[in-house]
C-alpha cells in the first residue's frame, strides 16, 4: 500500500502562478507515450483507450437531426428528462436498480465529469479515498485536485486483479471517506466478483463509507462473465454513486456524454457543482445518447463479439511468447506482465516503441498495482494486432 503523496509532491517554492496542486500534478503517463508515437512513422498503437468503431449510424443521424431541428440550446441542468427516464429504465432492466429520473440522475460531460462531480462534491481537504489499482489514470488525479488524498491498494494478477477487501480494510482510517472502484477495469480487464463486492459493501456499512463505482465499461463483458452493478447490491444504493457513460459501450467518446446516479441527498451536491461548472451536457449529444439507449443493443453486441475475437488472439499469443497475460473478462485491454523479461514497464514500453514502433502504455501509469505490466488496447483492427504481435515477438527474441 502506498499513499500518493509521492506521486503528487508538494511544490516548496513559488516558481509559478499555478496553484501548488496543479503545478505538482504530473501529466498522464499515457499522453507522454502518444506524443512520442506521434513523431514516428509506421507506429502501431495499442495505446489507445477508446473504441476504434465509429458511433452507430442511427445515433449519428439523431445528433444531426437534433441540430437541424434547432435543438441548439441549453437543456435542464440535470439533462433532458426523457434521457434520464430512459437511463433509469435501462439501469432497472439490466441491473434491477431503480433511480428517480427527477432527482437521482445527472447527465454529464462524459464519465470524466461524473468523476469530477463526485470528487468535488464529496471531499473535504485531507479526506482519504481508497483506490484499488491499477486503475484509470484520472482517479488519483481527480481525488487529489478535489483536495483529497488517494490511497492506492494494489490488486494482484494472482488474484485475477479482483478487489482485495482485507487490504482495503487495513487501509481504512478515521479520514477515509470513500472507496473508488472501477470494474470492468481499465487497464486489467478484470470484472469484480459478486462475493468480493459484497465484502466491499460490508466494509462500507461497517465504516460508514461511500462507494464510488465507475462502471463505464459495464456492457463490454465477455460470455461467461457478468458485470455486477455495485448499487444493486443490498443496501448499497443509498451509499454509492454510480458513474457511467456512453463513450465506451456505444463508441461515442467524442460526443462527451456520461452520467452520475445516486441518492438524492448526494446528487443535490453533485448538481450544484455541475450547475456552476458545466450548466448542461451538449444538447445534440444527449439526443444522440437517447437513440443509443433505445436502439443500439445489437451494435453493442456486434462490438463485443469483435473485441472478443481480438482478445482471444492477443491473450493467447502474448502467453505463448512467454509474457504471462491475464484473460480479460471485460473492457478492451490486455495487461501482460513484462517484468519477466528483466525490464521494468517504462523501459519495456520505451524500447518497444523505439525499436519496433509498437506503442503500449507502461502499467505504472495506472498506479502502484500496475508496475511490471504494460497495457495493450485491442480496440484496434485485427490485422494491426497481428502485425503488432509479430513485432513484439521479434523484440522479445532480441532481448
Ligand atoms: N472511466 C474509465 C475507467 C475510463 O477508462 C474512461 C476513459 N478512458 C473514463 C472513465 C472517462 O471516459 P469519458 O469521459 O470519455 O466518458
Per-chain topology:
Layout: E1 2-3, H1 20-23, H2 29-38, E2 44-45, H3 57-68, H4 81-95, E3 105-108, H5 110-122, E4 128-133, H6 138-145, E5 149-154, H7 165-171, E6 176-182, H8 194-207, E7 210-214, E8 240-245, E9 258-261, H9 264-277, H10 283-295, H11 297-320, E10 333-334, H12 345-356, E11 358-359, E12 361-362, E13 374-377, H13 382-398
Parallel strand pairs: 2-11, 4-5, 4-6, 6-7, 7-8
Antiparallel strand pairs: 1-5, 3-9, 8-9, 10-13, 12-13
Bound molecules: 4'-deoxy-4'-aminopyridoxal-5'-phosphate.
4'-deoxy-4'-aminopyridoxal-5'-phosphate is lined by residues 49, 110-112, 136, 182, 186, 214, 216, 245, 247, 253, 258.
Describe the structure.
The structure is a single chain. With 399 residues, the chain is α/β, with parallel strands linked by helices. It has 2 domains: 3-54 and 299-398, Alpha-Beta Complex (Aspartate Aminotransferase, domain 1); 58-295, Type I PLP-dependent aspartate aminotransferase-like (Major domain) (Aspartate Aminotransferase, domain 2). The chain is 41% helix and 13% strand. It is built from 13 helices and 13 strands. It has helices spanning 20-23, 29-38, 57-68, 81-95, 110-122, 138-145, 165-171, 194-207, 264-277, 283-295, 297-320, 345-356, 382-398, and strands at 2-3, 44-45, 105-108, 128-133, 149-154, 176-182, 210-214, 240-245, 258-261, 333-334, 358-359, 361-362, 374-377. An 8-stranded mixed sheet has the order 1-5-4-6-7-8-9-3, sandwiched between helices. A 3-stranded antiparallel sheet has the order 10-13-12. A two-stranded parallel sheet has the order 2-11. Helix 5 packs parallel to helix 6 and helix 11 packs parallel to helix 13. The longest helix has 24 residues, at 297-320. The radius of gyration is 21 Å and the shape is globular. The two termini are 32 Å apart. 47% of the residues are buried. Residues 49, 110-112, 136, 182, 186, 214, 216, 245, 247, 253, 258 line the site of 4'-deoxy-4'-aminopyridoxal-5'-phosphate (PMP).
Amino acid at each position: 500500500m502506498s499513499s500518493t503523496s509521492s506521486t503528487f509532491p508538494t511544490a516548496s517554492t513559488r516558481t509559478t502562478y499555478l496553484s501548488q496542486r496543479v503545478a505538482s500534478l504530473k501529466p498522464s503517463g499515457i499522453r507522454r507515450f502518444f506524443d512520442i508515437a506521434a513523431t514516428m512513422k509506421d507506429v502501431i498503437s495499442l495505446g489507445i483507450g477508446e473504441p476504434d468503431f465509429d458511433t452507430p449510424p442511427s445515433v449519428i443521424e439523431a445528433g444531426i437531426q437534433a441540430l437541424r431541428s434547432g435543438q441548439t440550446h441549453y437543456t435542464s441542468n440535470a439533462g433532458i428528462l426523457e434521457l434520464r427516464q430512459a437511463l433509469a429504465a435501462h439501469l432497472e432492466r439490466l441491473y434491477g436498480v431503480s433511480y428517480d429520473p427527477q432527482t437521482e440522475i445527472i447527465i454529464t460531460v462524459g464519465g470524466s465529469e461524473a468523476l469530477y462531480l463526485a470528487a468535488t462534491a464529496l471531499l473535504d481537504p485531507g479526506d482519504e479515498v481508497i483506490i484499488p489499482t491499477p486503475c484509470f489514470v484520472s482517479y488519483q488525479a481527480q481525488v487529489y485536485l478535489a483536495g483529497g488524498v488517494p490511497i492506492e491498494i494494489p490488486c494482484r494478477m494472482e488474484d485475477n486483479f479482483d478487489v482485495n477487501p482485507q487490504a482495503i480494510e487495513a487501509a481504512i482510517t478515521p479520514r477515509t471517506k470513500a472507496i473508488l472502484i472501477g470494474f470492468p477495469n481499465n487497464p486489467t480487464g478484470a470484472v469484480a466478483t459478486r462475493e468480493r463486492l459484497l465484502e466491499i459493501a460490508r466494509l462500507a456499512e461497517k465504516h460508514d463509507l461511500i462507494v464510488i463505482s465507475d462502471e463505464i465499461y459495464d456492457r463490454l463483458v465477455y460470455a461467461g462473465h457478468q458485470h455486477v452493478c455495485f448499487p444493486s447490491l443490498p443496501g448499497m444504493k443509498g451509499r454509492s454513486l454510480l458513474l457511467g457513460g456512453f463513450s465506451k459501450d456505444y463508441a461515442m467518446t467524442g460526443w462527451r456524454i456520461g452520467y452520475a446516479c445516486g441518492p438524492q441527498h448526494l446528487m443535490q451536491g453533485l448538481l450544484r457543482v455541475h450547475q456552476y461548472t458545466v450548466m448542461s451536457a451538449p444538447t445534440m449529444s444527449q439526443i444522440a445518447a437517447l437513440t443509443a439507449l433505445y436502439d443500439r443493443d445489437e451494435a453493442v453486441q456486434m462490438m463485443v463479439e469483435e473485441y472478443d475475437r481480438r482478445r482471444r488472439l492477443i491473450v493467447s499469443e502474448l502467453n505463448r511468447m512467454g509474457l504471462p497475460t491475464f484473460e480479460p473478462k471485460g473492457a478492451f485491454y490486455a495487461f501482460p506482465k513484462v517484468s519477466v523479461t528483466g525490464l521494468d514497464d517504462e523501459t519495456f514500453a520505451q524500447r518497444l516503441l523505439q525499436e519496433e514502433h509498437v506503442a503500449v502504455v507502461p502499467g505504472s501509469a495506472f498506479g502502484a498495482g500496475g508496475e511490471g505490466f504494460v497495457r495493450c488496447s485491442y480496440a484496434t483492427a485485427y490485422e494491426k494486432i497481428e502485425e503488432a504481435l509479430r513485432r513484439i515477438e521479434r523484440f522479445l527474441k532480441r532481448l
